[in-house]
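Fold this complex.
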Amino acid sequence: MSKRVAVVTGGIGGLGTAICKQLAGAGHTVIAADLPADDARRASFADATAGLDVHFMPLDVSDFSACGAFVRDVQDAHGGLDILVNNAGITRDSTLRKMDESQWEAVIDVNLGSVFNLSRHAIDGMQARGFGRVINISSVSGQTGNFGQTNYAAAKAGLHGFTMSLAREVAAKGITVNSVSPGYIETPMTRAMPEDVRSRTIASVPVGRIGAPEDIARAVAFLADDASGYIAGANLPVNGGLFMSF
Ligand code: NAD
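Structure:
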């Protein structure tokens, strides 16, 4: 196995931390890119990743030029950027009738704009080195829609179009682009759901439980593997059977 350099956006969040640990455990150097965090949050991430080759770098993924500077810094410090996991995401839920422009724009900019911002800057280096893995974290909401999430579902569905199009552009260059669509996973994002909605949702999962961040991290590491080079433009749902399609 080759030791690769991986960037995980939203890397110190619920899923991000598990993804960083899984990729570092697979032998890669991992950079967790996330908004500037207070000491307590940084310390808790450092504890969770102790002993692993994981580094934190502050970044606002919705800022195009900051993403350019970030990619150059990673390439200068580590010799390249091989695996890009676009995981940063936010929710600003509201029915459309009550949604204001700022809720729409924030979710589109962070959840979808960021994927352009980082991929645009990382792709040339991947192409020059003849290897790359871009993995976009979407959501079951981007496949089914979800009440109160026109903004979030639009951004997450948009990721699939981006994924398939970029996959076609770079497949012949040793670069694969795929997405992973989590269902309901135990993280701060889902702990913030109203308790009645949360328990109803969990009861509807065929596997019979809420997902663990490690369930998603396994899927990401699988797609990131050198040996996964024949999977291109695919979406891997990891949702306990909540939604099935082909
Ligand atoms: P989380 O809130 O724990 O983590 C999200 C991380 O993104 C946070 O660390 C946050 O600081 C970071 N972030 C937010 N805005 C940012 C910005 N502008 N620049 C850089 N970083 C930023 O949430 P999570 O549950 O770990 O979600 C991770 C991804 O998985 C998201 O894209 C989310 O939409 C997706 N997802 C989660 C679930 C779930 O059930 N938890 C389900 C489907 C999809």
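The longest strand covers residues 175-182.
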